[in-house]
Write a structure and sequence with these properties.
This protein is about 50% helix and about 10% strand. By secondary structure, it is α+β, with helices and mostly antiparallel strands. It folds into three domains: about 25-115, Double Stranded RNA Binding Domain; about 125-215, DNA polymerase, domain 1, CATH 1.10.150; about 235-425, hpI Integrase, Chain A, CATH 1.10.443.10. Belongs to the 'phage' integrase family. It comes from Acidovorax benzenivorans. This is Tyrosine-type recombinase/integrase.
Length: about 425
Amino acid sequence: MPPNHLETRMDAGDAAVSHAPKSPTRRGISDAALRAAKPTSKPYKLFAGNGLYLEVKPNGAKHWRWKYRLLGKENRVALGSYPKLPLREAREAMEAARKLVEQGKHPAQQKRLDRIKLGLEHSNTFEIIAREWVGLRDWQEVTKARRLNMLERVVFPHIGALPVRQVEPAHVLDILRRADANNGNSVMCEAKRTMSAIFEFAVSTLRAKVDPVYPVRKALPANKTQHKRPLSFEEVGALLNAVEGHGGYYQIQAAFFLMWLTLARPSEVIEAEWCEFDLDQALWRIPAQRMKKRKEHLIPLPAQAVALLRSLHTLTGNRTHLFPHRDDRRKPMVTASFRQMLKALGWAGKFSPHATRTTGSTRLNEMGFSPDWIERQLAHDEPNAVRRTYNHADYLKDRAIMMQRWADLLDEWKKKTADAMKPVLG
């Protein structure tokens, strides 16, 4: 039996028993008295004032309830169990519920809505949204794989499991500093651009409110190495000589030279397949699905490129790709192989493979070749809409002459640089 000095007010329609505890004042209830309340054969209530009461069940469970009226109707909301929720906190919970009622909201419905929002928030982690974003890109599969690889190495270990709304600028800054220190400035810049794009996607799909990259976007210096600046002919010669003298994997060297001889993109070279080449006609036909603009691209091959490819064919001609992966020969080599070679040669930070095209475009323009030929060789779209509509010329013969001159120049620059180094080496 509950103690005689407590009293419970019985409301019409509430289950009550004649031996329920009685109290002279509803505000006089204390935590000690609530703890002392014993179960009876039927549930009963201990009122704490302003509609707040503790319901004691026959099994001994004690639950806080708050009775309120909204739009003329009486309602009840569960606030928690006792003693996990003591009297003081129960009153605070009641006060919070009362403020919701004043706004015309049912506390129970608001709690359910908050739980749904919390569940959605935790199902929208940064990694889930990042993978969705990558999947929606109009990129080649190998490009998507490379971007995911960077995220898996640099970003996901730190914020991948966090709900995207909980990622703060401090998290982003920590990732950028780690990337800069461990992977280099270029990887840091790629991580920064990628994270910002993912957060922008999350904001546009109403799963985040802000891009936390923005406040710290200038915290670390931009890439100082100017990887894409055009190289001088002395630098080109020195670089090609260094690669030729590199004692590493021959396929990497061959892929690097093919990139320079054709001015194709690094990924286009790395993923090249033997079926794309007609060495007798000195032509390389890259299918649309492998091109950035999703248009087939025809590249004339200079004599040096044909000789290189015939030599390479004796090594990998029985494979699908010119440059198979070391571990899985059914797949192509990865572009990271270029970076590793350049790092070993001391060229990391001075040059990136993408600067090959910048160098070729700059030097060929300086030599007076037609910009139309150069842009077509680089598979660039004509920026002028009218010219793009009417200019369908491929300039293949003209480009073949231009690229042969380019290949001859590369040989000349290599020889001049090598000759200039002989007295030093001697």
